[in-house]
Amino acid sequence: MKKAYSGIILFVLVSFVLLSGEKLNSFEVPKEPILCTETGMHTAPIYRIATDSQNQFLVTGSIDKTVRVWELSTGRPLTILRPPIEKGLAGRILAVAITPDGKTIACGGRTGFAWEKSQSIYLFDRESGKLVRRIKDLPDVSIYHLVYSKDGRFLVATLGEGKGIRVYRTEDYSIAGEDKDYGGHSHSADFDEGGRLVTASHDGLIRLYGNDFKLIIKKKAPGGSKPFGVSFSPDGSNIAVGFGDSSKVDVLSGKDLSRQYSPDTSGVTKGGFISVCWSTDGKFLYAGKTWSPVFIRRWARGGKRGWGWGPGYKDLPTGEYDINDVLPLKEGGVVFCTSNPSFGAFGPKGQQTLNKGPSIAEYRGSYKEFLISQDGSTLQFGYEILGKSPARFSISERSLKVDPPKEKIFSGPTTTAPGLEVTGWEYSDHPKLNGKSLNISGQEFSYCVAIFPDKNTFIIGTSLFIRLYDKLGNKNWENFTQSAVYSLNISKNGRVAAAALGDGTLRWYRMKDGKELLALFPHRDKKRWVLWTPSGYYDASPGAEELMGWHVNNGREEAADFFPISRFRSTYYRPDVIAKTLETLDEGEAIKLANKESGKKVEEVSVAKIFPPVVSILSPRDGAEVSNKEIEVKFSIRNPSPEPLTTVKVLVDGRPIGRGLTIKEIQKDQDVQATKVPIPEKDAEISIIAENRNATSEPATVSLKWSGKVKEGEFTIKPKLYVLAIGVSKYEDKHLTLQFAAKDAKDFAESLLKEKGGLYRDVVVKVLTDEKATRDEIIDGFDWISKETTSKDIAIIFLAGHGVNEKGGVYYFLPVNANVDRLRRTAVPFSEMKNTVTSLAGKTILFIDTCHAGNVMGARGVPADIMGIVNELASAENGAVVFASSTGKQYSFEDSNWGNGAFTKAVVEGIYGKADYTGKGKITINMLDLYISERVKELTKGKQTPATAKPQTIPDFPLVLKR
Predict the structure, then answer these.
(1) In degrees rounded to 5, what are phi and psi of residue 691?
(2) What's the mean pLDDT in 588-607?
């Protein structure tokens, strides 16, 4: 069965974009924000890629409705381009192109709106990400391919449903030529150096045009009836053709399209080669295969066969998913993209030089392993195809467990029942009930089925919908999905259905009417997750708030915005609403109950009313070389909210410079602002963040390369390390007593003292334990570390003890003299921690171990919500790296056999050298994170899951040397 998952993808994902979406789209560009995930990588198949002539940039386009620009040599993300979209099919990207000089990017696909009755091509400025032009009034069919001529003077678009091609002059994007005489979809076109054009079409014809775009000749391609990909050889003498219905590859004459030869495709029995290209020197021919096994075949001698030459090809493995596009690189080799989604590159000798894999879980073929608890609050799924790498997520526990133990309380979907013979539902376009076809669209595939506990109804998941049918085959409801539905299950109490979608999300639906209740995105790193309601109320693990947010259209002629959900934390971070949603099966009721139980008045606020500012750095450009200790940064601020700006912060390597710019310094009548920024004599990143009363912008960031030299005789001054370690075991309230919190703080501080003379010229430690850890002493300790730390130093704060939340939501750390009935007077509020973090001038790291077992708050309290404060402290504007001992409602364990809490034991072991995974003697933040994660899991047998959150503005950096 595994082989069926690769090959069918092409049919399904190409065919369903043919739907017009009339019933799915509104009649204007929607102004309402649209919730979507954002992982830093595509979450749906990548159909097309493009590169500039110098191979500096790689452009990828996906049906996830984004276009992404990458640094081709490294795979580093540079820019995300966002055309306007709708909730239906509008906005799906099937084609991308970039001008040879790398300045302009074109994209198309299903990029029109129903009320326009046409499609559009969007043109973006690559560097700024601005939408600079919209080519409109194309026929209302899919745009399948875009490509610029070698000299950049023309852009060709190939169209679906027999609408042919259009060629545009890039000087003004007027039409330079067109051909409407096509009998099928056209999926590919290519220019030669002289400006001639060749196209392929599913009407079976290859068409050759002169540089005046007049048809020279058209001929049937001999290798198959549906030619898909075409490519000119570098000298224009030959044309390679790949097919969608054949495993053949043809090489035709570049003069008259006569067949020259067919490369060896032996061994290929399923699938074929839809994308073809030549190496830049013409010595090799490449073709990307569909259907497992998947690979790129590279033929020597351009694919010519000869006596005694052997097979003449080499297969380059790429994984298990269809290769949709292959392009040559100027130094030899190719770059490619796949459906799972991923992209990569091979060098001239066939060695893989780049591999960018997916960030989403892969649910294909795993319906048997998609398990649900009786009440529907817990799901078990697999991160990999066929249900491999299992994990379990619990809404009530707010936890994600990897490789969970087997438990009988979880059940798989029921797929057979007496009187309900559902057949043809698995990877089929003809599902049937008792031999009678079910009413699904001809462009859909069915992937999964689940029968209701009463055996009278069932749901089917397809490439576009979830549908509920009764035992007579009548459709009771349907819910359009943003991605294919690969697995379904129904809770035994019959209240909810759960689905695993192709975009990596898991979703809960109300069974009575199909209304979506909740959506979960578990990142492929198996650590981060974010869970949200349709209105955007959410819960998230540490470091996961950036994974989801709001897409906001700015009309038809401007690029859209994306705001991560973290920008609205104060309003939309509501774990209590999440918990109540599945209980009530109604989001509105859940909000009312959560507000009542929290004891605070919470007003429902439209996200559109609290948009944050949008900042763009105009200069220096990303990747610029600098040699001065102070540079001028020019930037612009757009404030879509009616609220005025309050603060503008400048950060260097993730930490604020000074107190920020005063608003008086921001010239409201000028589009371009400027400020002087001091930078270190090394590679660095500069970020600018703007705030209004309601929200904080995403950081605008540029990376700078230091080109200056340190003068002979000068030396680099090492930073100081300041450590404030606080641990409370012997509370005045004996009910709060812990075993190792005070020892944890001492052992942690001791492990860092050894770093004096290593990375740091000095290590200054203040330890507050037990009777010394009073409320006043802790606040004085915060003042001390804030005053002592300079911009060149590193500050570390370690907290071990009890942490609690009031019912109103405020988090407190309990000092030795805390009174749980008088928290505001006797405990240390989160605001003190946050103010300290924001005031620290240097890099800041927090270790928080405050979720110990025990009924700390009695009837007044609720379990400490460590995830909320970790995400807030680690947001870009606060800029702290945070290590937390546990997540969700987990407790942090301590044991006399360890002599510490599990978290501190792992931290100290890592610092002493066990986290040195590279063996180079330096332990970085990321290395320590990995070690702590694995070690705590080992110590607690999976009962405790630590987490780390690091601002996106702070790159990984060395923390200690192995001693």
Answers:
(1) -130, 145
(2) 84
Over residues 860-884, the pLDDT tens digits come to: 234 467 888 899 989 988 889 999 9
Q: What are 526-575's pLDDT values in tens digits?
A: 999 999 999 999 999 999 999 999 999 999 999 999 999 999 998 999 99
Displacement of CA 927 from its chain's centroid (Å)? 22
Q: What is the distance between the alpha carbons of residues 136 and 121, in angstroms, rounded to a whole number?
A: 7
Element (H, E) at 519: strand 516-522
DSSP string, 322-371: -EEEEEE-TTSSEEEEETTTEEEEE-TTS-EEEEE--SS---TT-GGG-E
The percentage of the chain sitting over the pLDDT mark of 90, rounded to a whole number, equals: 77
Residue whose C-alpha is closest to residue 798's, from 879, 728, 719: 728
Q: Is residue 714 over pLDDT 90?
A: no
The owner of tokens 């090394």 is 682
Q: Tell me how far apart the 2 most distant CA atoms of the chain are, in Å.
A: 93
- In the chain the first and final C-alpha atoms are separated, in Å, by 52
Asked if omega into 640 is within 30° of 0 (cis), the reply is no
- Please name the residues in contact with 691: beta carbons below 8 A apart, sequence gap of 6 or more: 612, 613, 645, 646, 647, 648, 649, 697, 877
Q: Which residues contact 279 (CB under 8 A, 6 or more apart)?
A: 285, 286, 328, 332, 333, 334, 348
Residue predicted with more confidence, 248 or 427? 248
Contact 545, 530 (CB under 8 A): yes
* Residue 8 pLDDT exceeds 60: no
What distances in angstroms separate CA 338 from CA 43, 78, 688, 868, one per listed residue?
Answer: 12, 20, 35, 36
Q: Is 811 helix (H, G, I), strand (E, B) or coil?
A: strand
Q: Which residues have CB under 8 Å from 606's CB, separation 6+?
A: none
- Strand ranges (E), 773-917: 794-800, 803-805, 811-813, 828-829, 843-849, 880-884, 894-895, 900-901
Question: How many CB atoms within 10 Å of residue 369?
Answer: 17
Question: How does DSSP assign 155-223, residue by residue?
Answer: EEEEESTT--EEEEETTT--EEEEE---SS---EEEE-TTS-EEEE-TTSEEEEE-TT--EEEEEE-TT
Cα 337 to Cα 14, 49, 295, 356, 950: the distances in Å are 15, 7, 11, 9, 30
Query: In degrees, to the nearest 5, what angle opens at C-alpha 342 toward C-alphas 341 and 343?
Result: 140
Which pTM does this prediction carry? Answer: 0.92
Alpha carbon distance 297, 650 (integer Å): 50
Give how far Cα 930 sits from Cα of 527, 911, 935, Å.
11, 12, 9
C-alpha pair distances (Å), 84 with each of 14, 178, 676: 21, 26, 35
- Cβ atoms of residues 67 and 83 within 8 Å: yes
Amino acid found at 316? L
CA dihedral of 655, 659, 665, 666, whole degrees rounded to 10: 50
Predicted local confidence at residue 781, as pLDDT: 97
Per residue in 232-252, is it b (16+ CB within 10 Å) or e — as a string?
bbbebebbbbbbbebbbbbbb
Residues near 741 by beta carbon (within 8 Å), at least 6 away in sequence: 727, 728, 729, 800, 801, 849, 852, 894, 901
CB-CB neighbours of 940 under 10 Å:
21
Contact 851, 885 (CB under 8 A): yes
Phi first, then psi: what are they for 302, rounded to 5°? 65, 15
| Helical H segments across 533-574, by residue range | 569-572
Which positions ≥6 away from 196 have C-beta within 8 Å? 208, 209, 210, 211, 216, 232, 236, 254
pLDDT of 60 above 60: yes
What is the structure's pLDDT at 599?
Answer: 75
Whether 867 contacts 885, CB under 8 Å: no
Tokens of 562: 């994306």
- Asked whether residue 16 carries a pLDDT value surpassing 70, the answer given is no
888 CB neighbour count, 10 Å cutoff:
22
Strand order in the sheet with 465-470: 446-451, 457-462, 465-470, 475-480
